[in-house]
Amino acid sequence: MDNIRFIIKNREDQFYLTLKERVNEYLKTQKFGRYGNKTILVKAVLLIFMYWATYYLILNGYFTGYFIIFGYSLLALFGLFVAFNVSHDATHNSITPYKKFNKVLFYMTFNPLGIDAYLWGFRHSFSHHIFPNVDDCDADIDSNYLVRLSPNRPLLPHHRFQKYYAPILYLFFTLHWVFIKDIHYLFRKNLANLHNIKHPPLEVFGLILSKLLHLFYLIYVPIVIFNFDTTLVLLGFLAFHFTLSYVFLFTNIMNHHSVEADFPQRDINGFLPGSWARHQMATCLDFYPTSYIFNFFFGGFNSHCAHHLFPEVCHVHYVEVSKIISTTAQQFNIEHKVTSWEHGIVSHFKHLNDLGTIPPRPPILTSYSGH
Q1: Which listed site, 149, 222, 335, 358, has its alpha carbon 20 to 30 Å from 25?
Q2: Domain residues of the chain, as ranges?
């Protein structure tokens, strides 16, 4: 596990060299290069304003009675759009050249959702992005007892029913993340490909503080300071996380956990087939990657190949980058996996159905799709 590597180095992969050259040529035509432009500035200001404006409307009684539940759901939707369009790019330092500014922006826009920015950014950048869909190397598919997401994970008896109970579990995804998973990860010394993990004390304090602030502004302030009905506020809090969970998962989960996505295995010497770039192509599924509308709302999560190949590039460029990827992949006979958003969801549940009965695969070095 510690010696995992790709059998072809990127500097020997003509596909990646050609793709990188073409993307760099495109970025040279952009005023701010790989960083954000006026579009992301407008989106960031607009979405952050809409989030806190919705919160203001909730506190000032614009959502009366059970409509407060709708208000909390709307708040979650705007919060997730902020995370997609601002927080995610900020953690990859692709909004501006100033890393400290990006970090502050990331923490200030992500922590209000209750999910610890530091822990997520740590796992996301140093585990998931390097080895997506590789067991014991991608934190997103490891340590999941209830839902089997990889054909290389052990098959347990209850997995045959996962396609039925997953939609219910998914409702509690972010609640579990906020109150259980973050705490669990805080005390893990080893996680997927990450070993001997030590977290800075300031980040541990920040995690505790972010949880308290999340509960403070969403529950304490409405009930104690504004005298809202406790039951309605708690129902609203649940609606916030149910909405956050479903919109997040059904925008993001099909990107890697679908019938089309590969789950490559290492051989006995620790080699993965192909190169790092071909690995990203094989494990990612895009939906409407060249749509400006989907790019505007989902912050490039729909252009997942572009993001995994060029995480340092701001998502406002992903429509054009995706076009370059598609053309270059076709030239080198590599599949660029593209579907519709609705088929991506269907594909995910087909994936769950298949993994409910398919036994684990024996370790063997296989080729990527189109390799």
Answers
A1: 335
A2: 5-355
Contact criterion met (CB below 8 Å) for 249 and 173: yes
The answer to whether the Cα torsion of 75, 79, 80, 82 is positive or negative is: positive
What string of H, E and C letters represents the secondary structure of the chain? CCCCEECCCHHHCHHHHHHHHHHHHHHHCCCCCCCCCHHHHHHHHHHHHHHHHHHHHHHCCCCCCCHHHHHHHHHHHHHHHHHHHHHHHHHCCCCCCCHHHHHHHHHHHHHHHCCCHHHHHHHHHHHHCCCCCCCCCCCCCCCCCCCCCCCCCCCCHHHHHHHHHHHHHHHCHHHHHHHHHHHHHHCCCCECCECCCCCCHHHHHHHHHHHHHHHHHHHHHHHHHCCCCHHHHHHHHHHHHHHHHHHHHHHHHHHCCCCCCCCCCCCCCCEECCCHHHHHHHHCCEECCCCHHHHHHHCCCCCHHHHHHCCCCCHHHHHHHHHHHHHHHHHCCCCCCEECHHHHHHHHHHHHHHHCCCCCCCCCCCCCCCC
Q: Sign of the C-alpha dihedral, residues 110, 92, 132, 126?
A: negative
**What mean pLDDT is predicted for residues 340-354?**
97
User: Taking all residues of the chain, what is their mean pLDDT, rounded to a whole number?
Assistant: 92
Of 240, 347, 260, 364, the C-alpha closest to 305 is 260
**pLDDT single digits (tens) 44-66:** 999 999 999 999 999 999 999 99
Best CA proximity match to 293, nearest among 284, 303, 285: 303
Q: How many CA atoms lie within 13 A of 314 on its CB side?
A: 25
Q: What is the Cα–Cα distance from 20 to 28, expressed in whole angstroms?
A: 12
Alpha carbon distance, N-terminus to C-terminus of the chain: 24
What is the pLDDT averaged over residues 178-184? 92
Residue 132: helix, strand or coil by DSSP? Answer: coil
Backbone region of residue 65 per phi and psi (left: phi > 0; alpha: psi in -120 to 50; beta: other values): left
